[in-house]
Amino acid sequence: MPEGLVPITLPKLGLTMETGSVSRWLRKEGETVRTGEHLFDVETSKSANECEAPAGGVLSRIVVGTGVELPVGALIGVIVTGKASEADVSAFIKNYQPQKKA
Asked: What is the pTM of this model?
C-alpha cells in the first residue's frame, strides 16, 4: 500500500454480514478527519451502525456514495495522511485489492 494513503472499507459488523451499504457520510471530500471520529453510517439487512475513521488526515475521495449495496471489504473511500497527489489517489483506487482474511 502506498505511504500516506489509507483505504476506508466496508466493515464486517457481524458474523453473518456479507454485504451492506453506506447510508450517510458525515464529512465531505477535502475535509479533515480524526482517527476514531464517526465518519459514516452503514446499513445492513439487520442493523444500522456508526463507523469510525481508520486514520487521521484528509478525506480525499469518497469512492462509493450512499445506498449502494457492496460486499464486506469493498473500498468506499480514501484518507490521505501525508503528501499524495490526485493521480496517486486515482491509481490507488484503480489498483486496490481487498485484504484476504485468514
From this structure: 0.91
